[in-house]
Amino acid sequence: MENILTVSRLQKIRQAPLFEPVSFSLGRGEGLGVYGRNGCGKTTLLDMIAGLVKPDAGEFNRAGRLGYVMQLDGFQNALSCRDNLRLEAALCGLTGQAAKQRVLACAEQCDILSFWRKPFSRCSTGMRARTAIAAALLPEPELLLLDEAFSGLDQESYASVKKIILEKKQAGAALILVSHVWEDFTDLCETALTLPDANRRPI
Protein backbone atom coordinates (compact mmCIF):
# COMPACT_ATOMS: atom_id res chain seq x y z
CA MET A 1 0.00 0.00 0.00
CA GLU A 2 1.27 3.46 -0.92
CA ASN A 3 2.03 5.62 2.11
CA ILE A 4 0.41 9.04 2.12
CA LEU A 5 2.36 10.06 5.21
CA THR A 6 5.53 8.75 6.86
CA VAL A 7 6.64 10.29 10.17
CA SER A 8 10.01 9.47 11.72
CA ARG A 9 10.88 10.46 15.31
CA LEU A 10 9.09 13.80 15.03
CA GLN A 11 9.36 16.04 18.08
CA LYS A 12 8.75 19.62 19.24
CA ILE A 13 10.72 21.06 22.15
CA ARG A 14 9.51 24.00 24.26
CA GLN A 15 11.83 24.21 27.26
CA ALA A 16 11.28 20.44 27.40
CA PRO A 17 9.96 18.01 24.75
CA LEU A 18 6.17 18.12 24.43
CA PHE A 19 6.06 14.38 23.78
CA GLU A 20 8.30 11.42 23.09
CA PRO A 21 9.55 11.05 19.47
CA VAL A 22 6.64 10.12 17.18
CA SER A 23 6.95 7.61 14.31
CA PHE A 24 4.18 6.15 12.14
CA SER A 25 2.99 5.77 8.56
CA LEU A 26 -0.44 6.06 6.97
CA GLY A 27 -1.66 4.55 3.72
CA ARG A 28 -4.75 5.38 1.70
CA GLY A 29 -7.97 4.85 3.63
CA GLU A 30 -6.22 4.49 6.98
CA GLY A 31 -7.09 6.45 10.11
CA LEU A 32 -4.98 7.35 13.12
CA GLY A 33 -6.37 8.76 16.34
CA VAL A 34 -4.22 11.08 18.46
CA TYR A 35 -5.30 10.99 22.08
CA GLY A 36 -4.24 12.90 25.19
CA ARG A 37 -5.05 15.55 27.75
CA ASN A 38 -5.24 19.25 26.92
CA GLY A 39 -1.81 20.78 26.34
CA CYS A 40 0.01 17.52 25.60
CA GLY A 41 0.96 18.54 22.05
CA LYS A 42 -1.83 17.07 19.89
CA THR A 43 -2.46 20.26 17.89
CA THR A 44 1.27 20.92 17.62
CA LEU A 45 1.74 17.50 16.03
CA LEU A 46 -0.89 18.29 13.39
CA ASP A 47 0.59 21.74 12.79
CA MET A 48 4.00 20.17 12.14
CA ILE A 49 2.53 17.68 9.67
CA ALA A 50 0.65 20.54 7.96
CA GLY A 51 3.87 22.52 7.64
CA LEU A 52 2.72 25.35 9.92
CA VAL A 53 5.21 24.61 12.71
CA LYS A 54 8.82 23.53 12.23
CA PRO A 55 9.84 20.33 14.06
CA ASP A 56 12.84 20.47 16.39
CA ALA A 57 13.73 16.86 15.69
CA GLY A 58 12.79 14.13 13.23
CA GLU A 59 11.24 14.38 9.81
CA PHE A 60 8.15 13.50 7.79
CA ASN A 61 7.28 12.85 4.18
CA ARG A 62 3.79 13.77 2.99
CA ALA A 63 2.37 12.91 -0.42
CA GLY A 64 -0.78 14.24 -2.02
CA ARG A 65 -3.17 17.07 -1.20
CA LEU A 66 -3.91 18.14 2.38
CA GLY A 67 -7.10 19.23 4.11
CA TYR A 68 -7.00 20.60 7.65
CA VAL A 69 -9.94 21.15 10.01
CA MET A 70 -8.39 23.38 12.67
CA GLN A 71 -9.76 24.27 16.10
CA LEU A 72 -9.57 27.94 15.15
CA ASP A 73 -11.19 27.91 11.72
CA GLY A 74 -10.25 31.44 10.63
CA PHE A 75 -13.57 32.10 8.90
CA GLN A 76 -14.87 35.65 8.52
CA ASN A 77 -17.87 36.15 10.82
CA ALA A 78 -19.39 38.89 8.64
CA LEU A 79 -19.39 36.67 5.54
CA SER A 80 -21.89 33.93 4.76
CA CYS A 81 -20.84 30.30 4.83
CA ARG A 82 -20.97 30.33 1.02
CA ASP A 83 -18.70 33.35 0.72
CA ASN A 84 -16.29 31.90 3.29
CA LEU A 85 -16.08 28.75 1.16
CA ARG A 86 -15.50 30.84 -1.96
CA LEU A 87 -12.66 32.63 -0.18
CA GLU A 88 -11.20 29.29 0.91
CA ALA A 89 -11.44 28.03 -2.67
CA ALA A 90 -9.45 31.03 -3.87
CA LEU A 91 -6.79 30.31 -1.24
CA CYS A 92 -6.63 26.75 -2.59
CA GLY A 93 -5.92 28.16 -6.05
CA LEU A 94 -9.37 27.46 -7.49
CA THR A 95 -10.83 30.11 -9.78
CA GLY A 96 -13.79 30.76 -12.06
CA GLN A 97 -16.29 28.02 -12.83
CA ALA A 98 -14.07 25.32 -11.32
CA ALA A 99 -14.18 27.13 -7.97
CA LYS A 100 -17.97 27.54 -8.09
CA GLN A 101 -18.51 23.89 -8.94
CA ARG A 102 -16.15 22.67 -6.22
CA VAL A 103 -17.72 24.92 -3.56
CA LEU A 104 -21.20 23.68 -4.51
CA ALA A 105 -20.09 20.03 -4.49
CA CYS A 106 -18.53 20.32 -1.02
CA ALA A 107 -21.52 22.26 0.31
CA GLU A 108 -23.85 19.52 -0.94
CA GLN A 109 -21.63 16.78 0.48
CA CYS A 110 -21.60 18.44 3.91
CA ASP A 111 -25.31 19.37 3.80
CA ILE A 112 -24.89 23.11 4.32
CA LEU A 113 -26.93 24.46 1.39
CA SER A 114 -29.94 25.11 3.64
CA PHE A 115 -27.98 27.70 5.63
CA TRP A 116 -25.02 28.63 3.47
CA ARG A 117 -26.23 32.21 2.89
CA LYS A 118 -26.39 32.74 6.65
CA PRO A 119 -23.69 34.94 8.22
CA PHE A 120 -21.09 32.73 9.84
CA SER A 121 -21.48 34.66 13.10
CA ARG A 122 -25.06 33.39 13.39
CA CYS A 123 -24.25 29.73 12.76
CA SER A 124 -24.59 27.03 15.40
CA THR A 125 -21.65 24.88 16.46
CA GLY A 126 -22.86 22.08 14.19
CA MET A 127 -23.20 24.44 11.21
CA ARG A 128 -19.71 25.77 11.84
CA ALA A 129 -18.28 22.24 12.03
CA ARG A 130 -19.87 21.18 8.75
CA THR A 131 -18.68 24.37 7.04
CA ALA A 132 -15.14 23.76 8.31
CA ILE A 133 -15.16 20.23 6.90
CA ALA A 134 -16.54 21.49 3.57
CA ALA A 135 -13.61 23.94 3.40
CA ALA A 136 -11.11 21.17 4.17
CA LEU A 137 -12.57 19.04 1.37
CA LEU A 138 -12.19 21.75 -1.28
CA PRO A 139 -8.71 20.64 -2.45
CA GLU A 140 -9.92 16.99 -2.65
CA PRO A 141 -7.44 15.97 0.06
CA GLU A 142 -5.66 12.65 0.18
CA LEU A 143 -4.72 13.37 3.81
CA LEU A 144 -7.27 14.92 6.16
CA LEU A 145 -6.18 16.41 9.51
CA LEU A 146 -8.98 16.88 12.04
CA ASP A 147 -8.40 18.76 15.28
CA GLU A 148 -11.23 18.19 17.77
CA ALA A 149 -13.74 18.01 14.91
CA PHE A 150 -16.52 16.76 17.22
CA SER A 151 -16.02 19.20 20.09
CA GLY A 152 -19.24 20.78 21.32
CA LEU A 153 -21.54 19.00 18.86
CA ASP A 154 -24.97 17.71 19.82
CA GLN A 155 -25.83 14.09 19.07
CA GLU A 156 -27.42 14.78 15.66
CA SER A 157 -24.56 16.99 14.47
CA TYR A 158 -22.00 14.52 15.82
CA ALA A 159 -23.51 11.70 13.75
CA SER A 160 -23.71 13.91 10.64
CA VAL A 161 -20.11 15.09 10.86
CA LYS A 162 -18.82 11.59 11.56
CA LYS A 163 -20.67 10.24 8.51
CA ILE A 164 -19.05 12.87 6.26
CA ILE A 165 -15.57 12.00 7.53
CA LEU A 166 -16.18 8.26 7.24
CA GLU A 167 -17.33 8.62 3.61
CA LYS A 168 -14.14 10.51 2.78
CA LYS A 169 -12.04 7.80 4.44
CA GLN A 170 -13.89 5.05 2.61
CA ALA A 171 -13.17 6.90 -0.64
CA GLY A 172 -9.44 6.49 0.06
CA ALA A 173 -8.34 9.50 2.10
CA ALA A 174 -6.01 8.92 5.03
CA LEU A 175 -6.92 10.81 8.18
CA ILE A 176 -5.53 11.86 11.54
CA LEU A 177 -8.14 12.68 14.16
CA VAL A 178 -7.12 14.53 17.33
CA SER A 179 -9.37 14.13 20.36
CA HIS A 180 -9.31 13.71 24.12
CA VAL A 181 -12.44 11.52 23.85
CA TRP A 182 -11.52 7.92 23.01
CA GLU A 183 -14.97 7.11 21.59
CA ASP A 184 -14.46 9.64 18.76
CA PHE A 185 -12.06 7.20 17.09
CA THR A 186 -14.68 4.44 16.66
CA ASP A 187 -15.18 3.49 12.97
CA LEU A 188 -12.67 6.13 11.82
CA CYS A 189 -9.30 4.99 13.19
CA GLU A 190 -7.58 1.62 13.15
CA THR A 191 -4.90 2.72 15.61
CA ALA A 192 -4.35 5.50 18.13
CA LEU A 193 -1.28 7.36 19.30
CA THR A 194 -1.25 8.43 22.94
CA LEU A 195 0.58 11.63 23.84
CA PRO A 196 2.81 12.56 25.61
CA ASP A 197 4.31 9.05 25.79
CA ALA A 198 3.79 8.48 22.02
CA ASN A 199 2.53 4.95 22.53
CA ARG A 200 0.62 3.63 19.50
CA ARG A 201 -1.83 0.77 19.79
CA PRO A 202 -4.71 -0.83 17.83
CA ILE A 203 -8.25 0.26 18.58
Write the layout of secondary structure elements.
Blueprint: E1 3-11, E2 13-14, E3 16-17, E4 22-27, E5 31-35, H1 42-50, E6 57-62, E7 66-69, H2 81-91, H3 96-109, H4 125-137, E8 143-147, H5 155-170, E9 174-179, E10 191-194, E11 199-202
Parallel strand pairs: 5-9, 5-10, 7-8, 8-9
Antiparallel strand pairs: 1-4, 1-6, 2-3, 10-11
Helix pairs in contact: 2-3, 2-4, 3-4, 4-5
Can you walk me through this structure?
With 203 residues, this protein is of the alpha/beta class. It has two domains: 1-64 and 142-203, 3-Layer(aba) Sandwich (Rossmann fold); 78-141, no CATH class. The protein is 31% helix and 26% strand. It is built from five helices and eleven strands; from the N terminus they run E-E-E-E-E-H-E-E-H-H-H-E-H-E-E-E. Strands 7-8-9-5-10-11 form a six-stranded mixed sheet, sandwiched between helices. It has a three-stranded antiparallel sheet with strand order 4-1-6, with no helix packed on it. A hairpin with a 4-residue loop joins strand 10 and strand 11 (199-202). Helix 4 (125-137) runs parallel beside helix 5. The protein is globular, with a radius of gyration of 17 Å. The model has no long low-confidence stretch (mean pLDDT 93).
What sequence of helices (H) and strands (E) makes up the elements? EEEEEHEEHHHEHEEE
Percentage of residues in DSSP E strands: 25-35%
Note the main sheet. 6 strands, mixed
Strand line-up in the sheet with most strands:
7-8-9-5-10-11
Say what the CATH topology of the largest domain is.
Answer: Rossmann fold
Count of helix runs: 5
* Shape assignment: globular
N-to-C terminal Cα separation, in Å? 20 Å
Bin the helical content. 25-40%
**Integer count of domains:** 2
Structural class by SSE content: alpha/beta
Rg, Cα atoms, Å: 17 Å
Number of strands: 11
Using the coordinates above, name the CATH class of the largest domain: Alpha Beta
Give the name of the CATH superfamily of the largest domain. Answer: P-loop containing nucleotide triphosphate hydrolases
- The poorly predicted ranges are none
Mean pLDDT, to the nearest integer, reads: 93
CATH architecture of the largest domain: 3-Layer(aba) Sandwich
